[in-house]
Task: inverse folding
C-alpha cells in the first residue's frame, strides 16, 4: 500500500534518529534526500519552455522519470499532438531522487546515492549517456542531497543539502543544511562547484531546505525550508550572473511547513504548498528588483498537498493531493496572483506526488504510486483530460525537456 506519512513525518523522524546517534541513509528514494518519504522525491519545478524552435529545426520532446522501486530512470518521448508517452529506454541508477533537465535539452541531472549524476541527452532518441563522474554534494557521503534544479539559461545547477559539513558561518542549526551551486560545462554537461555552499536555513532556525526554483530572469533563487521546532520560511538568494554564486538576500515566514515551491511563468508570483499543519497553498508577490516576497493570501487544498505547477498562461494552477488521490485545480487572479478553487478535482490514482508540464505547456504529467499519468490542458478553461498512462516502479520526480536537431 502506498505510504502517505509524507515529507514532514519522515524528515522529522530522521532528525530525531540523527540526534540520538542513530539513523539511516534517509530512505530508499530521493537520492538519500532526507526530506522525502521512501520512494518519493520533490517534483521538478522547471518552467515550460514555450519559445518555438527555429523553422529549419526539428524539435523533439522527452520526459524522464526517477523510479526508486527499480533503481532506474525511464525515458519517454512525448507525442507533441496528443501528449502520449512512448518509452525510449531505461538507465540503471541506484536510488534515483530529484531530477532536473537543462532547459536547452542538452543534459539531465539526477540526485542519487552517489551525489549528482550528469547525463547527455541524445537530441534524436532521448537516450542518456554519462556526462562525467558523479559529483559529491555538501555531505561527504553524497547521501543527503535533497533537491536539484537548473537555471533558465542552462548554465548553473543548484542543490539543497541537509547536514552539510561545509557552510558559511555564522548560521548553525540543529540540522546543518546548505545550498550548493555548480557551473555547467556547455560542451560536456559536467559540473564544477561554484564557491562555498551557502546556509540553507534562516539565522537561529533548525531548518532543512527542500524545493528550489530559479526566477525566470535568472537573477534569484528561492528555497522552501522547513523548521521542525519553529516556523518554516522561504529564502531568497541573489545569483551572480557571471559565476552563478549565491548570496542570501531575504527570507519570509511561510508557516506551516512550506513543502514545494513554484513560480508563475511571468515571475510575478510564487506559490508554495503546505503539506502539514495547514494543508493549503499560499501566494506571494515577487519584487522584480530585490527578489523579496510579500504574502498575498492562502487557500485550502486537499489532504497532504504536495506538487504544484502553473500553466504557461499564468491563469491556472494544479496541486497534487497525496492522501486523497487527486489533483486540485485553481484559477489565478492576473492582478494579485491569488488562487481561487474551481471546485473541480481530478482523480489520479493512488498517491499522486510529482507533477510536471511538457515544454510547450499543453500537457501535464503526474507520478502516482505505480504509474505516470498524462493529461491534456484545455487552454481556455484549464480543465484536464486524461490521455495516457505509462507504467513505473514507484515513480517519483519527473522532468521534461525539448531537444533541437
Result:
Amino acid at each position: 500500500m502506498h505510504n502517505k506519512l509524507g515529507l514532514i513525518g519522515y524528515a522529522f523522524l530522521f532528525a530525531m534518529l540523527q540526534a540520538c546517534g542513530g539513523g539511516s541513509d534517509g530512505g530508499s528514494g530521493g537520492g538519500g534526500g532526507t526530506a522525502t518519504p521512501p520512494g518519493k522525491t520533490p517534483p521538478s519545478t522547471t518552467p515550460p519552455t514555450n519559445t518555438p524552435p527555429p523553422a529549419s529545426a526539428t524539435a523533439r520532446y522527452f520526459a524522464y522519470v526517477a523510479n526508486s522501486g527499480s533503481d532506474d530512470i525511464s525515458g519517454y518521448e512525448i507525442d507533441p499532438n496528443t501528449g502520449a508517452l512512448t518509452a525510449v529506454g531505461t538507465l540503471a541508477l541506484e536510488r534515483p531522487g530529484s531530477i532536473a533537465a537543462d532547459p536547452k535539452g542538452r543534459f539531465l541531472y539526477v540526485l542519487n546515492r552517489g551525489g549528482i549524476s550528469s547525463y547527455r541527452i541524445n537530441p534524436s532518441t532521448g537516450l542518456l549517456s554519462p556526462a562525467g563522474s558523479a559529483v559529491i554534494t555538501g555531505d561527504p557521503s553524497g547521501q543527503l542531497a535533497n533537491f536539484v534544479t537548473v537555471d533558465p539559461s542552462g548554465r548553473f545547477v543548484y542543490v539543497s543539502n541537509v547536514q552539510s559539513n561545509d557552510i558559511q558561518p555564522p548560521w548553525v542549526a540543529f540540522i546543518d543544511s546548505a545550498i550548493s551551486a555548480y557551473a555547467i560545462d556547455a560542451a560536456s554537461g559536467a559540473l564544477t562547484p561554484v564557491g562555498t555552499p551557502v546556509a540553507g536555513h534562516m539565522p537561529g532556525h533548525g531548518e532543512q531546505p527542500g524545493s528550489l526554483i530559479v526566477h525566470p530572469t535568472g537573477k534569484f533563487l528561492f528555497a522552501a525550508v522547513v523548521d521542525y521546532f519553529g516556523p518554516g520560511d522561504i529564502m531568497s538568494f541573489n545569483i551572480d550572473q557571471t559565476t552563478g554564486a549565491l548570496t542570501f538576500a531575504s527570507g519570509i515566514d511561510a508557516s506551516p511547513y512550506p513543502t514545494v515551491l513554484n513560480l508563475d511563468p511571468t515571475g510575478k508570483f510564487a506559490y508554495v504548498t503546505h503539506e502539514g499543519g495547514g494543508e493549503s497553498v499560499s501566494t506571494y508577490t515577487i519584487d522584480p528588483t530585490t527578489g523579496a516576497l510579500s504574502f498575498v493570501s492562502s487557500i485550502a487544498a486537499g489532504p497532504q498537498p504536495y506538487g504544484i505547477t502553473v500553466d504557461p498562461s499564468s491563469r491556472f494552477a494544479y496541486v497534487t493531493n497525496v492522501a486523497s488521490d487527486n489533483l486540485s485545480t485553481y484559477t489565478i487572479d492576473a492582478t494579485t496572483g491569488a488562487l481561487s478553487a474551481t471546485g473541480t478535482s481530478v482523480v489520479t490514482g493512488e498517491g499522486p506526488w510529482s507533477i510536471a508540464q511538457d515544454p510547450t505547456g499543453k500537457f501535464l504529467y503526474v507520478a502516482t504510486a505505480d504509474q505516470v499519468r498524462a493529461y491534456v490542458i484545455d487552454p481556455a478553461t484549464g480543465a484536464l483530460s486524461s490521455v495516457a498512462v505509462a507504467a513505473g516502479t514507484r515513480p517519483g520526480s519527473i522532468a521534461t525537456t525539448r531537444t533541437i536537431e
In short: The two ends are 43 Å apart (CA to CA).
